[in-house]
Design brief:
The chain has helices at about 15-25, 45-60, 70-80, 80-85, 120-125, 140-215; strands at about 1-5, 10, 30-35, 40, 65, 90-95, 110-115, 135. It has about 220 residues and is an alpha/beta fold. It folds into two domains: about 1-140, STAS domain (Transcription Regulator spoIIAA), CATH 3.30.750.24; about 140-218. Strands 1-3-5-6 form a four-stranded parallel beta sheet, covered by helices on one side. The chain has a two-stranded parallel ribbon with strand order 2-4. A two-stranded antiparallel ribbon has the order 7-8.
């Protein structure tokens, strides 16, 4: 009997904990990990799923894995080396062609390295190792990281400087416009007050002329 274990859309360490709990509840049932709806996967989630599949296979199980349907997620998993490594832990259906060596354009791809104690175990067991021990790393050499990051850092620094320059220019323009608006408001108030004074003076002069004329007629 096959038990379907649905992989969450976000494959991270929390999702791996949930998969471990469900796999423990399955008992002797054959497990099918349905990852068709995965939309995001981080290195911790990928490594955790691979480790779970390896453990189940070493303990006598035959776990199966359905890969994500999203082309972007598949491309990312292929570039990280997950799909090619999953074949050793799961029965993978419809797996896409793995990238050739050197084709990965991922900054931190996953690589499988042999355990340094494997040769010693083979010698102790007469040339027949009990199981293949492997370590998982997802970092290239420091020189490779530095070579890739320096270019990105320079580009980001230049772009940030351009953004700061543009922001400063806009800030100066906003300050100048604010000052101009305040000065214009003050001028409007001054001219309005002066206009009211002039109009009041004219009205007063006309009243005085009318009163003087009326006094002259008496």
């Amino acid at each position: 009997m096959t038990r379907v274990v649905v992989v969450p859309q976000t494959l991270d360490d929390d999702a791996v904990d949930a998969l471990l709990a469900e796999a423990a509840d399955a008992g002797d049932e054959k497990l099918l990990f349905d990852a068709r709806h995965v939309r995001f996967a981080d290195p911790f989630g990928m490594l955790g799923l691979l480790a779970l599949g390896t453990y189940l296979r070493e303990t006598g199980g035959r776990p199966m894995l359905q890969l994500p349907q999203s082309p972007d997620v598949l491309r990312y998993l292929g570039g990280m080396g997950f799909i090619s490594s999953a074949g050793a832990a799961f029965e993978v259906g419809d797996a896409p062609r793995a990238r050739a060596a050197g084709e990965s354009n991922v900054l931190l791809p996953i690589h499988q390295i042999e355990d340094v104690t494997e040769d010693e175990d083979e010698e102790e067991n007469g040339g027949h190792p009990d199981s293949q021990n492997a370590l998982w790393i997802y970092e290239p050499e420091p020189e490779e990281i530095l070579r890739r990051l320096v270019t990105d850092y320079v580009e980001i620094s230049i772009y940030r400087a351009m953004l700061e320059s543009t922001a400063s220019e806009h800030g100066a323009r906003m300050t100048a416009m604010r000052s101009a608006s305040e000065n214009a408001s003050e001028l409007i108030e001054d001219y309005t007050l002066e206009m009211n004074r002039q109009r009041q003076a004219e009205i007063t002069q006309e009243i005085m002329e009318v009163v003087a004329g009326a006094e002259g007629l008496r």
